[in-house]
Amino acid sequence: METIKKNSLPDPAEIKSEIMQLYPAKVAKKRSKSILINNPDEEQEIQANVRTIPGIITQRGCTYAGCKGVILGPTRDIVNIVHGPIGCSFYAWLTRRNQTKPPTEQSENYMTYCFSTDMQDSNIVFGGEAKLKQAIREAYEIFKPKAIGVFATCPVGLIGDDVHKVSREMKEELGINVFGFSCEGYKGVSQSAGHHIANNGIFTHVVGTEDIVKEGKYRINMLGEYNIGGDSFEIERLFKDAGITLVSTFSGNSTISQFATAHTADLSIVMCHRSINYIADMLEKKYGIPWIKVNFIGAEATSKSLRKIAQYFGDQELINKVEEIIDREMKNVVIVKEEIHSRCNGKTAMMFVGGSRAHHYQELFSEIGMVTVSAGYEFAHRDDYEGRHVLPTIKVDADSRNIEELEVIADPVKYKDRVSAQDKERLEKEGFRFKDYDGMMSEMPKNSLVIDDISHWETEVLIERYKPAIFCAGIKEKYVVQKYGVPLKQLHSYDYGGPYAGFVGAVNFYKEIDRMVNTKIWSLIKAPWDKEPKIIAEMALTEV
Ligand code: CFM
After folding, report:
1. Residue pLDDT, tens place only, 80-93
2. Going by DSSP bridges, is the β-strand pair 35-37/371-376 parallel, antiparallel, or unpaired?
3. Helix (H) or strand (E) holding 488
4. Closest Cα partner for 115 from 134, 129, 98?
5. pLDDT digits over 98-128, tens only?
6. Is the CB of residue 453 less than 8 Å from the CB of residue 381?
7. Could you give the CA distance from residue 147 to residue 198 in angstroms, rounded to a whole number?
8. Distance 318 CA to ligand 1 centre (A)
């Protein structure tokens, strides 16, 4: 399947049934609901955000990773202490390529540190709260940070250490903000639960605690942008040019004071819907800040998002400025894009990542003529696939019920409507949509294969049957896929590259993909399992 047109994808029913054949009947029945042959003209329901079947290897991470690593990790001036064995703390140590730019060399930046209580067997037997307190004191004495976050790992939940009680006591003792997160790895079915727990914690303990209003006519919060490979820097450059004031980013290149003042902005823009929609909603309910979905991955998407922000503020000066920026930036984008389009057009891509990038990056590929034949998320929910209109129909199961839904009401003092009912109506008439997201599936071609929580076996079948020009996933998948002779682009860490956001990012991405899909090197690779004898195994159990 070397070259292909977007609207002529062949029916992949046979590929799906090949995948199913290896599974025991009950497993096949369950997996079948998470593997959809896409038809954007129909309402289709995908199974998502459910437990992975034990014994199947998938790409998922844990709840602690979603809370500590994803949401809180990129903030430079909070000391984040992992309460747990040292193994969990590896993830505390900048493993996610978030970048940050402190204003001066003396400014606080704890992101290069790794803070852990290093729990031992004796702490598991006799309890670890005393050790945690000691660690908080020690961190305070050395760094004098503005705030300390405490993250519970699996053993902490199992033995019953109370990170919230310890945090309250230490807040009192030290006089700084100390807050805990019950984000034990097992707390949910994936990272996603950790996002929710982190959103709740920051909203409860930090948002709204500083009433400093930044200057500027157009003041916004950027939610769900984590500055992987410098993406936020590129977006910040565009905002600065346009005269847009960034009150806060959750949480790329951020500080705790940005979170604390987020309630003073006049609009929230949401990049990664999965990880941060909770805060977007709560900021609206409690403080009256509306939110819109944006996407800065892709040059066209960036232009569209900038225009949307300008349309919201409705100020001609901003509208003109945004058009001027788009004109200026697109000149270079178009030159590079046209050249690369001629070499990449019709090639196929697959992407299986996280909870938003598998959607966003399809835009970048299509700008150079490439078609996404199969895609899926690790831990997204149905609304990320099907659109937010399905929210009322999503059944809350025992695993989701496990995560607290905060009851938020309008703040009697700080709530302020940002748009008048009249303006809202006018904007909506112009096609402007508040608080909405259509999800990934409606924008994917007919007959593309959409797979939630893809397994290793399913990945193998896809590669063998589709032979995509490029596969996008993470480090765990990278080398197996490449041994098949298919280049793999990491969409989590960007393989040390980036930024890929905004206009500069788009050009970087086109060049990178061109290089990867047009080199001849991959066709020279013979997979080790094609050269060496194969060990064939069978399932011990055929029914579960
Ligand atoms: Fe959002 Fe992310 Fe993603 Fe995510 Fe992630 Fe990430 Fe991702 Mo890796 S917050 S859902 S939990 S965009 S770390 S910056 S790349 S899986 S697609």
Report:
1. 999 999 999 887 77
2. unpaired
3. strand 488-490
4. 134
5. 999 999 999 999 999 999 999 999 999 999 9
6. no
7. 15
8. 31
